[in-house]
Amino acid sequence: MRIAVVGSGYVGLVAGACFADLGHDVILVDNDEQKLSALRRGEVPIHEKSLPELLRKHRGRKLEFSDDLAAAARASAAIFIAVGTPPTEQGDADLSYVESVARAISGAIDSYKIVVEKSTVPVYTSDWVRKIILRNAAPPDSFDVASNPEFLREGSAVTDFLYPDRIVIGADSERCAAVLREIYAPLVDGSYYQRSGAIPRPKQAQIPPPLLVTSAKSAELIKHASNAFLAMKISFVNAVSSICEAVGANVEQVCQGVGADSRIGPRFLRPGVGYGGSCFPKDLMAFRSVARECGYEFRLLDEVIRINEEQRQRFLRKVRNALWTLRGKRLGVLGLAFKGGTDDIRESPAILLVQALQQEGCRIAAHDPAAAERAREVLKSGVDFVSSAYEAASGADALLILTEWEEFAALDLDRLHQQLKYPIVIDGRNLYDPEVMAAHGFTYYSIGRPSAAPETQAAAAGTPARKINRS
Ligand code: UGA
After folding, report:
1. Strand ordering across the sheet containing 424-427
2. Atom of ligand 1 at shortest distance to CA of 227?
3. Is 279 a catalytic residue?
4. Rg over CA atoms, the chain
5. pLDDT (tens digit, 9 = 90+) per residue, 334-368?
6. Which helix (H) or strand (E) holds 78?
7. 234 CB within 6 A, ligand 1
């Protein structure tokens, strides 16, 4: 099928490349000429596993890049809108880009087409998109508007797209649903997974994925409700981690016990420095705002957001408790991205923490395997960007782990110990076993677990430190 995907951001670029891999002919439309030229040259603007190989495979063949929205819409049977929906000052989603795309494609609807929301949008957006297209004189039976929310995570976006837990089609007519069914047929009938060049299946993936057909409004709500629920899970576990700290319990053990209940499940129960990224913070505010407009005060979401902010403050207190005064202290920082596996720093708790520590007079040496370049634009002065974890630790009063990159969980602990001025590690992502850290001579603080220190330094680590002899 010929498909236009409007917007070459995270969702649009990944969706475009994956639709091409399913066998469709895709035109990826953007009005940013620089971005388009870079894509045409073969550059990949985001750090995302498997994306470079998909772009290489399909660029100039099943995947074209264009700035001509009307022509792309005219040539396509389905037009996916994947433009940004940034938050306004009040917290609701700014839908002006969605509206201008709807307006621009109206004139191009010369035969039956479906217009599909792929961006995360509030409920009722599909109604508005339909109204706007009608207002601009497209005949009512020449198009349908659908919602097909995307559940991909940055860092595993390609496999999330091709091996989804579910595909949600929000369509209000069978004609429209049929087009979307056809687009996803290679996944739903399993034929994609038989192909020799298919992106390999991740461990936990169930194939083929189920396809849910709902109304457009339900699909819009599924997206917001899913992200809000996941964020709530994280805030819940972060709140539990505070209680664990107060009573000397271990949040990892608690989560293991809680997550073993199949009704709850073990995923998204990792405590940390709070959630960040371009989705959860924005989507929670937008969902709260749309709920309010519909007459429902979604106070639960206020609390989820509050706990998330408090989690950063609690981490800062941990740093203060470990180091006493902060002015003039040199801190090594591991991780600046909002999570591992991405170069995205939007709403990154790591960036917010580094800024707060700088304000308190700390000097920072930071390492991130992918996000340093983007972080440099935001943090500007006062941060040394270094190229390894050991360099970040070199001469530091303490090392902070702020992003769960895999490589940060596999450090040579003896080498790290030698680098640090004081062997103090404050781990905001629970990447290490406290006993192992103490056995390697570290005073180690983490989230929701007792701190640990070698016997000689246990007193300095404060109670309730585990006293462990270095072996
Ligand atoms: C999230 C959702 O997981 C996707 O399903 C959704 O499609 C996407 O938003 C979106 O709306 O576009 P993403 O923001 O890429 O995906 O990242 P997540 O893996 O969900 O992580 C979000 C934040 O939560 C990160 O800061 C991460 O470190 C944190 N997190 C995640 C935790 O603190 N604990 C966990 O157990 C899981």
Report:
1. 383-385, 363-367, 330-334, 398-401, 424-427, 443-445, 452-454, 466-468
2. 2
3. yes
4. 24
5. 999 999 999 999 999 999 999 999 999 999 999 99
6. strand 78-81
7. yes
